[in-house]
Amino acid sequence: DQQVKQNSPSLSVQEGRISILNCDYTNSMFDYFLWYKKYPAEGPTFLISISSIKDKNEDGRFTVFLNKSAKHLSLHIVPSQPGDSAVYFCAALLTQGGSEKLVFGKGTKLTVNP
Amino acid sequence: GAGVSQSPRYKVAKRGQDVALRCDPISGHVSLFWYQQALGQGPEFLTYFQNEAQLDKSGLPSDRFFAERPEGSVSTLKIQRTQQEDSAVYLCASSTQANTEAFFGQGTRLTVV
């Protein structure tokens, strides 16, 4: 039972265009969402996050949108650059019973073509 | 160092062998997490420490898996009698108590043959 779903295993875009990565979740207890970027043979690197009380957070070329009613979030990268090519993981923070854990999606491999 | 450090980077173990994976978190980070990432999957939660206290070990797949953080800094994940399905990348992450952003290490790739 996957609580965080990234339904697109891969995405390919042209340099300079917008990249949109999508993520859906099922657990209403999630109150914080994060996007991580991962290059091969490296650990995930934090990219951007959003609290459930907001619907948008922007950091430079990266914007995350949250639609709580639809249990959906998306990451927009504008303009896309070849160096953005990586696997992007959506993660949700679950805090309960004194514990906290990140629940990850399976990832979307983004390829930005020059 | 400034980041989370894990060792070894790569480990090949024969089936039935015991292994120990080490994590050096960022200095001062109270929270420490272990995740397991199988090929083509996202990281999956194994266990969580707050200082030296293991507050959640619900993700450990079996009693062959054991984690400790005796002094509230360095942590070790031990896997006894390794099996082929234990082959994965084991990721360690740390964060400040009030910070929800977790910083990950490069991971240890374990291959059981």
Helical residues, percent of chain A: under 10%
Radius of gyration of chain B: 13 Å
How large, in whole angstroms, is the Cα Rg of chain A?
14 Å
Q: Which structural class matches the secondary elements of chain A?
A: mainly beta
Q: Please report the two chains with the greatest interface, counting residues with C-beta closer than 8 angstroms to the partner's C-beta.
A: A-B, 26 and 27 residues
Q: Count of DSSP helices of chain B? A: 0
- Proportion in β-strands of chain A: over 45%
- Roughly how many Å apart are the termini of chain B? 33 Å
Oligomer: heterodimer
Order of helices and strands of chain A: EEEEEEEEEEE
Note poorly predicted spans of chain A.
Answer: none
Please, could you describe this protein's structure?
The complex is a heterodimer of chains A (114) and B (113). Chain A is built from no helices and 11 strands. The N and C termini of chain A lie far apart (38 Å). In chain A, strands 2, 4, 5, 9, 10 and 11 form a 6-stranded mixed β-sheet that branches. Chain A has a 5-stranded antiparallel β-sheet with strand order 1-3-8-7-6, with no helix packed on it. Chain A is an all-beta fold and 114 residues long. Chain B is mostly beta strands and 113 residues long. In chain B, β5 (44-50) and β6 form a beta hairpin. The model of chain B has no long low-confidence stretch (mean pLDDT 94). Chains A and B meet through β4, β5, β9 and β10 of A and β4, β5 and β10 of B.
Write the layout of secondary structure elements.
The complex is a heterodimer of chains A (114) and B (113).
Chain A: E1 4-5, E2 10-14, E3 19-25, E4 32-38, E5 45-51, E6 56-59, E7 62-67, E8 72-77, E9 86-96, E10 99-104, E11 108-113
Parallel strand pairs in A: 2-11
Antiparallel strand pairs in A: 1-3, 3-8, 4-5, 4-9, 6-7, 7-8, 9-10, 9-11
Chain B: E1 5-7, E2 10-13, E3 19-24, E4 31-37, E5 44-50, E6 53-56, E7 65-68, E8 75-79, E9 88-95, E10 103-104, E11 108-112
Parallel strand pairs in B: 2-11
Antiparallel strand pairs in B: 1-3, 3-8, 4-5, 4-9, 5-6, 7-8, 9-10, 9-11
